[in-house]
Write a structure and sequence with these properties.
- The structure is a single chain.
- By secondary structure, the protein is α/β, with parallel strands linked by helices.
- The chain has a single domain, classed as 3-Layer(aba) Sandwich (Rossmann fold), CATH 3.40.50.
- Helix content is 37%, strand content 27%.
- The strands form two sheets. The chain has a six-stranded mixed sheet with strand order 6-7-8-3-9-10, with helices on both faces. Strands 2-1-4-5 form a four-stranded antiparallel sheet, covered by helices on one side.
- Helix 3 crosses helix 4.
- The longest helix is centred in the C-terminal third of the chain and has 18 residues.
- The protein is globular and about 50 Å long.
- Bound molecules: adenosine-5'-triphosphate (ATP) and magnesium ion.
- The site of adenosine-5'-triphosphate (ATP) has 12 residues, from strand 1, strand 2 and helix 1.
- Magnesium ion (MG) binds next to helix 1.
Length: 222
């Protein structure tokens, strides 16, 4: 088993108001999955992705990555898991606006500090070619279309060959044709690079591409 949640509970508190966003979520993902979290708005998809991705903390329950209990780790250790084993793709791309395409994709490799500049350069060029952005290395994010920006963020998530890529509604800001191209790309990279993808979506077209669909309803697995 690659990733597992056990009795995950998440409660948001704003002032005196408490809201339970996840109830005893038990899930297991094998290596190489291409799985979609679906469910109505507010059902807990983002919350679950953020908890599994160590971006948010559950109140109780456990998360295991390759048998290691992530919920027992301190925040520095969790940051290291994010840096070394996780990639993220967001609905709004979240590229660094002051960095060009090349620099955005290079960034996670620089932070990893495990490769020489020459190795990183070769990897950036290879991945940009794979996601169909060859020749756009010097462009700034704002000089790209939405679909191209999302390709940059797919490349950025993938370049370090993480164990898992979490994608929260990766096609929500794209027209259906561009969205389908992004999902096709993710699927291809999932098969070629054997990277596990867990993504959330509202989009029927995207669901069609998923190999497994997990439905959330009011914070519970339906
Ligand atoms: N920071 C927060 N403080 C309080 N409540 C929150 C917070 N974040 C999320 N919630 C609540 O938790 C519930 C689950 O939210 P979440 O964002 O996980 O849903 P979602 O399934 O991703 O929805 P959508 O499809 O709209 O993105 C919602 O009722 C939401 O209002
Ligand atoms: Mg969401």
């Amino acid at each position: 088993m690659l990733l597992e949640t056990k009795k995950l509970n998440k409660i948001y508190e704003s002032g005196k108001v408490k809201f339970q966003a996840l109830y005893n979520v038990d899930l297991a993902f094998n290596e190489g999955e291409f799985s979609a979290l679906v469910g109505p708005s507010g059902s807990g998809k983002t919350t679950l992705l953020n908890c599994m991705g160590c971006i948010d903390k559950p109140e109780s329950g456990e998360i295991f990555l390759e048998g290691e209990n992530l919920t027992q780790k301190n925040s520095a250790q969790q940051a290291r898991v994010r840096k070394e084993k996780y990639g993220f793709i967001f609905q709004t791309y979240n590229l660094m606006p002051v960095l060009n395409v090349y620099e955005n994709v290079e960034l996670p490799m620089k932070l990893l500090k495990k490769h020489s500049d020459k190795e990183i350069k070769d990897m950036v060029y290879k991945i940009l070619d794979e996601v169909g952005l060859k020749g756009l290395e010097k462009r700034m994010p704002l000089e790209l279309s939405g679909g191209q920006q999302q390709r940059v963020s797919v490349a950025r998530a993938l370049i370090k060959k993480p164990k898992v890529i979490f994608a929260d509604e990766p096609t929500a800001n794209l027209d259906s044709k561009t969205g389908e191209a992004i999902i096709d790309l993710m699927h291809e990279l999932n098969e070629v690079e054997k990277v596990t993808f867990i993504f959330s979506t509202h989009d029927k077209m995207v669901m069609k591409h998923a190999r497994r669909i997990i439905e959330l309803k009011d914070g519970r697995i339906a």
